[in-house]
Amino acid sequence: MRKILLYITILTTGLIFIARLFYLQIVDTSLAIRSQDNAIKVVYDYPQRGYIYDRNGELMVSNQPSYDVMVIPRNLKPFDTTEFCGILNLSREELEKKLDKARIYSPMLPSVVIPQLTKSEYAILQEKMRKYEGFYIQKRSLRDYQVDHSANVLGYIAEVNQKIINENPYYISGDLIGRAGVESQYEELLRGVKGVKHIQKDRFNRDIGPYKDGIYDTLPEKGKDITITVDNALQDYGTKLMKNKRGGIVALDPQSGEILALISAPTYDPAKLVGRSRSRNYWELYTDSIAKPLYDRGLLAEYPPGSPFKTLNALIGLQEGVVDVKDSFSCNHGYAYGRGRKLGCHAHKSPLSMIPGIAQSCNAYFANVYRRIIEKYPTPQDGMDAWNEHLKSFGLGQFMGNDLSTGRPGKIPDSDYYNRIYDYPTYKWYASATLSNAIGQGEVLMTPIQLANMAATIGNKGWYYTPHILKEINGQPIKEEKFTKKNYTTIQAEYFEPVIAGMHEVYKSGTAATLRIPGVEIAGKTGTAENFARIDGKRMQLTDHSIFVAFAPVDNPKIAIAVFVENGYWGSRYAGRMASLMIEKYLKGTITRTDMEKWILEHSLEDEYAKPLSGEPFRINQ
Amino acid sequence: MSKSSAGFDWISIFIYLALISFGWANIYSASLGSSSGSFFDLSQPYGKQALFIGLSLFLIVIILSVEAKFYQRFSSVIYIISLLSLAGLFVFGKTISGATSWYSFGSFGLQPSEFAKFATALALAKYLSDIQTNIRMLTHQVKAFIIIAIPALLIIPQPDPGSALVYAAFFFPLYREGLSGFYLVTGLTGVAVFILTLVIGPIWVSVAVLSIGLLLFFRKRKKRPGRLLITLFAIISIGLSFSVNYIFENVFEQRHRDRFNIVLGKEVDSRGIGYNTNQSEIAIGSGGWLGKGWTEGTQTKGHFVPEQHTDYIFSTVGEEWGFLGSAMVVLLFVALLLRLLILAERQRNQFYRVYGYSVIGILFIHFLVNIGMVIGIFPTVGIPLPFFSYGGSGLWGFTLLLFIFIKLDSDRLSY
């Protein structure tokens, strides 16, 4: 015992020490993390966000310097809160709240206290900053908008929220991120890569040089400048035309799939979402549930397409071989079917073949064509699915795979859909039950960009490029296969000739004869869509939507356009005029028909929009 | 080489060299400023330590050249000189950070308490090896205790209670030479009762003491300790337990209380007194398996651990060399201690053996208290890690302590 006591004691001590070291160094990882926290300060170097240019190289978005007041709660010393709050125009409680929030985020990492100082606040604070230990000013760059339109296209940038921080380790509190439009879609191109510096601190929290001589440090990488496909002048013009109306305009270059214009109304000045009033302005826009200015109608609004959809039924009819261009159908103010039901039509010559049928937009003609398509097959289910397949090849009823940050698929019904709603096989359904599809009402829904793409596809005689908004990155054209490969429809090119001729006739003698542009041959189609709203629990019909699709010139289309004006009554009234003016603006650069332009600029639909909200009985379509 | 010489124990010497070299490398890292000058820059701790190491090697040559009998013969003289040097501090001592432990010679200082250890070890060895001494006799126990207590009592008022605590190390040679285990049991029981009371309170400690007491009391065994003794033990233990609170609150100073509370986990205070331990644990914990590499420790560079090149040098090892490096140092110490134990046991001369045991005891207490403190399982007591911590007096004191024993060991065949 006397000899071994010391042996045992020494060995036991050695074992306990090694066990304790094992625990500290290997098992308990929290210590290693804490070491990173207090010995190494990570400082980020934010690169300039890339600029955004329009298709003609006009600058749309650049940057301006901005200054954030940051705090590291652990380093706070007592300070003159009255003076501090005075400079920043804050109440003491607000400041306390912000500091508490910063403490909860992290006592050691910087948090933003006041984002985006005004120039005068910065000038005053800058001089007194040394008095406020724990606070510092961080320079950032903010967006500087050169245009007052296109907010829906450009999007905006905002501080990241906790959810983004948790999901994407690149971002830390106070970072900015693109939150809509191009800013969101091309965030990674635009933002560049922030540089990082690791600074070794001593126990008094002083910088004592770069950590490991900076081997982990990186330089910031400037954001890439991007050129988008929209035409600045066309955007501006379209926004003006849409003033006091609700709806969307989408214009495409059929030969490239580039989006020339994407306009949603009502809209807002993108500069409103920059700076410290951003959050208040955003809230105003966000809570406007009536005008919905943040809602991009060009991409999100799913409307019944109305008459322009007839052109597709004509194409499918030809492809399926159920109708010939020369086949005529009579129309007696509509098309009667079922038990005394009738699809009404306006007054025109009868009977009509395909080209005048399109030009006059005869409902009865297309009811016949549609029935023949569906009834060609042994069951209405098969017919419906064949019809559906053709439409899908136009990109309808699905997300188009474009590079826009938002979108809707629209709706093209298929046999499953009708089987479900009619409870097949308990109850059977036939072509007549779905007859509204013949004229683009009923179950069919399309977004304005789908309508525009439909016009482009018809203009191209059967193919389209997926619409896209990105044109160049740092001056280099994009080469993405998705946007440089033609998508072919299931319709043979030859069948487009009569449909195009019909749409051309719309301008020459049909529903849009008053909208001709001297020297430009246009093919188009008017649309008037019935629509309903639920007001105080009652389903009420509102004034029809005014719809127009067109492409021009007919032989070699350079622009395809869809215009949708909510409650604008008939197709050529608002939408047709706007489409015509937009085409002229794009192709000629100047407007010759100033009286038509004046009419559009001066007419407002605000009264129309106020009707259903007034609580009074109202009349529509007047 | 004469017939009686067995040569020096190269294993111990090798471990010693490994420890001082590695120690220096860590002192270099821990005291490295923003500008890295020459290794021998005498304005920096690492430069001075290089000089101290050089002088130690010179000292070793002298120690090993002197005849072994000299240490035995002159032990009393060395002891008395050592006591005088400690007493002289009260008159000529220089106060550095609150402790009057130093004689100052220009920019260098000497700390006599570091030399008093080997002197006391020699004196105790001399006394115990006296043919007339019988450590089982109470009067001789008292005399031995006095030899140990005088230097300790001279050191406490400096104040340097840490260095005084080291004198507990002499229990090991005394026990080896026949001191009753009763003292060990009593001492350990006292410490256990004290700490347990702090953790679970006097009531539960009393319950535990009574249960163990009753178990022993009624156990039917021939070699059972006397029932009177058991009763006495139990009564004193319970008495101690109930006075722990009083001692803790009134005899201890606040800083002592804090140190206990932190180790016992009763208080979390990473800013005040707990700062050292906390920072030291962070530094070690951040080392991981292999550490951050020599001079790459972020905690070490930022000087987050106070006194890192002296008492907290082991935290640098932990941070920069990781588990592998720090476990290696622990193993080197264990190896050295066990090797010395083998050497001590092979001595036929009692003086040599007592001295050897004293050396082991002193090194062990330093090892236990220092590393225990740095890794947060022992209350903060400021004593250096032998051969590792920065400081000339410490290094020379430990060098003398160890190499005198190596010299004595080489002379073992003359008996």
Describe the structure concisely for a colleague.
The complex is a heterodimer of chains A (622) and B (415). Chain A has 622 residues and is α+β, with helices and mostly antiparallel strands. Chain A has two domains: 45-202, Penicillin-binding protein 2a (Domain 2); 232-286 and 302-614, 3-Layer(aba) Sandwich (Beta-lactamase), CATH 3.40.710.10.
Continuous helix count of chain B: 17
Please tell me how large the radius of gyration of chain B is.
23 Å
CATH topology of the largest domain in chain A, which one?
Beta-lactamase
Q: What would you report as the Rg of chain A, rounded to the nearest angstrom?
A: 32 Å
By CATH's scheme, which homologous superfamily of the largest domain in chain A applies?
DD-peptidase/beta-lactamase superfamily
Mean pLDDT of chain A: 86
Q: Estimate the strand proportion of chain A.
A: 15-25%
Mean pLDDT of chain B: 87
| Percentage of residues in DSSP E strands of chain B | under 5%
The biggest beta sheet of chain B is recorded as: 3 strands, antiparallel
Number of domains of chain A: 2
* E-strand count of chain A: 21
Shape of chain B: globular
Shape of chain A: elongated
Numbering strands along the chain, what is their spatial order in the largest sheet of chain B? Answer: 1-2-3
Q: How far do the termini of chain A sit from each other?
A: 114 Å
Distance between the termini of chain B: 16 Å
Backbone structural class of chain A: alpha+beta
| Uncertain runs of chain B | none
Q: Please describe the biggest sheet of chain A, giving its number of strands, its sense, and whether it closes into a barrel.
A: 7 strands, mixed
- What is the name of the CATH architecture of the largest domain in chain A? 3-Layer(aba) Sandwich
